[in-house]
Design brief:
single chain; 4 helices; elongated
C-alpha cells in the first residue's frame, strides 16, 4: 500500500529564485566565492552551497519528513545562511 500524503507541498518561489541566483552567480562569477587574496574561501562556498541546496529542496516543494533534514533544508535556513554569507562578505 502506498503512503498517503497528509499535505501537498507547493513550490516556494523565493527559495527557488535564491537557489537559481546563487547557482548562476557562482557559475558566472567564481571570484564571488574567493577571499581578498583570490584564494578559495571555503566558509563562503559552504554557506552559499548550503543556501543553494536548501533553496532548491524547499523551492521545488519537497519537505522532508525527518526533523533534522526538514530543518537543514528549510526556507528559514536558506535565508539565515544567505544573511550570514552577506555579513561575512561585507565584513571582509
Amino acid at each position: 500500500m502506498a503512503p498517503v500524503a497528509t499535505s501537498q507541498a507547493r513550490i516556494h518561489l523565493p527559495c527557488l529564485v535564491a537557489a537559481l541566483v546563487i547557482m548562476l552567480a557562482s557559475t558566472l562569477y567564481p571570484p564571488f566565492l574567493a577571499n581578498a587574496a583570490g584564494r578559495a574561501d571555503h566558509l563562503s562556498a559552504g554557506l552559499a552551497f548550503w543556501a543553494m541546496s536548501a533553496g532548491f529542496v524547499r523551492g521545488v516543494g519537497f519537505v522532508p519528513h525527518a526533523i533534522l533534514p526538514r530543518w537543514l533544508f528549510s526556507g528559514s535556513v536558506c535565508l539565515l545562511t544567505l544573511l550570514t554569507l552577506t555579513g561575512l562578505k561585507v565584513l571582509t
